[in-house]
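Journal club side-thread
Mid-discussion, someone asked how the predicted structure for our own chain would compare to the paper's figures. Pasting it here so we can look after the session.
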Amino acid sequence: MRAALALLMLALHLPLAWADPAGGQAAPALANAALAAGATPAPETAQAVRVVIGLTLLALLPALLICMTAFLRIVIVLSMLRHAIGMPETPPNTVLIGLALFMTLFTMSPVLQQLNDQAVQPFMDGRLAMQGAYEKGVAPMREFMLRQTREQDLALMVEVSKAKRPDTVADVGNVQLIPAFMLSELRAAFQIGFVIFLPFLLIDLIVSSVLMALGMMMMPPTTVALPLKILMFILVDGWTLVLKALVGSFH
């Protein structure tokens, strides 16, 4: 639940920050004007507004999960693994997605904990305004994404968006950072997937050569290769090796 609230906090201000260069500073100005006019804030109304905004932006959680976390790399590698074995539907998608979600939670637990302590809890307790919560909440996520993003991908997104070349990392906008992070994650996932494919490809080649030498050209090589690949994967404790490699691939 804390992880979901942490990701939801990022969504609270992203649309305003992208659409308004001031980063959503109009809301504090209106609030100050209302206080100057003698209006008193209603805690019940403020809490109700928070709930409505949270429920409305809850639909953005899947997109944030895919675009801004380790989920993208993990789920692609797990999907490529089952294709390398030769079972495109086993394990099922629900199993892979569930495993990828938990691995994402384990990988990003320090980031989510920092986001929860610095932004979500102070905002929910009323000790921090929306603008301040957004600034404090987006900082650990930006740091995580910048560590995984290649400079070439970031430069490409800046060039495609025709934005001003940033002088420092802090000047990089979220509009350029998020797609650059996704490109880097796709590249890393395919690199890991290529390494995973090699031993299974070797088994396919050996089985095909043996069947050809025996004159069994009518027998599909997958009929013999699939049990051998499953046996090899079990003997080397493949799931443990893949998951440890995935977690260790994040900076």
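Post-session note: DSSP finds 13 helices and no strands in the chain.
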